[in-house]
Amino acid sequence: MTQELDQTEARDLAEAWLDEPLAPAARRLLIGAVEAFAARGYHATATRDIAASAGLSPAGVYVHFATKEELLYQISLIGHRGTVRVVRAAAASAGHDDPAATLRAVIAAITAWHARYHTTARVINYELSSLTERHRAAIATLRREIDSLVRQTLEDGAASGVFDVPDVRGTTLALLSLTIDVARWFRATGARAPDELGAFYGELALRMAGHRGSSA
């Protein structure tokens, strides 16, 4: 990870995290930590780097967070909770009796989230090993919810004859790996905006699931 937050993502992140029950200084520290971890990597980042990004003194970090790892955990928690929220909303909007619509909507939502918050997504997906075992377990619970929803959607589609997908587990892994990888290469100056990319990936998901009659 070598790229800092671009202006669009920094604005979107600040707006998105206004809903989090955080003191303003704590919110600035978390966003500053995203930028510092993305630019330097977790282990190469010092608390003074995070404090500088947030416009605070190094001692100001410990007023809100006991350790650097706690900062990473809170970023991971907020990021994964945000992903779960958009996935739940996408599934609800698609209804409960149309696996094709659900798969398209869920994959589109995950993709768009990873594009819109690509720097944050890189940090929370590629720095998981830096979390303590207890914190990794908490994040794993959120990741399993997303995995389970996609897998169940594929299973429902296969059972109803909507999908031709002989390897549900492998297809689930492939779909989620594709959406996560968006964070590695996405740039705000690219050809597709996050929602456009999400729609494209949603259609690709139907192809991968062997959607019968798909026009993807």
Can you walk through the features of this model?
The relative contact order is 0.13. The model has no long low-confidence stretch (mean pLDDT 89). The protein is mainly alpha-helical and 216 residues long. Helix content is 73%, strand content 0%. It is elongated and about 60 Å long. Helix 2 crosses helix 7 and helix 6 runs antiparallel to helix 10. The protein contains ten helices and no strands. It has helices at 7-16, 24-40, 47-54, 58-64, 68-94, 99-116, 118-126, 133-160, 168-185, 194-208. It has two domains: 7-64, Homeodomain-like (Arc Repressor Mutant, subunit A), CATH 1.10.10.60; 69-208, Tetracycline Repressor, domain 2 (Orthogonal Bundle), CATH 1.10.357.10.
Low-pLDDT stretches? none
Number of domains: 2
Q: What class do helices, strands and sheet pairing give?
A: mainly alpha
Principal-axes shape call: elongated
* Helix and strand sequence: HHHHHHHHHH
Second rung of CATH, namely the architecture of the largest domain: Orthogonal Bundle
Largest sheet: none
Query: Cα distance, first to last residue?
Result: 33 Å
Radius of gyration: 18 Å
Strand tally is: 0
Considering DSSP H and I runs of 4 or more, what fraction of the residues is helical? over 70%
Overall pLDDT metric: 89
**CATH-defined fold name of the largest domain:** Tetracycline Repressor, domain 2
Count of DSSP-assigned helices? 10
CATH superfamily descriptor of the largest domain: Tetracycline Repressor, domain 2
CATH class of the largest domain: Mainly Alpha
**Strand content of the residues, in percent?**
under 5%
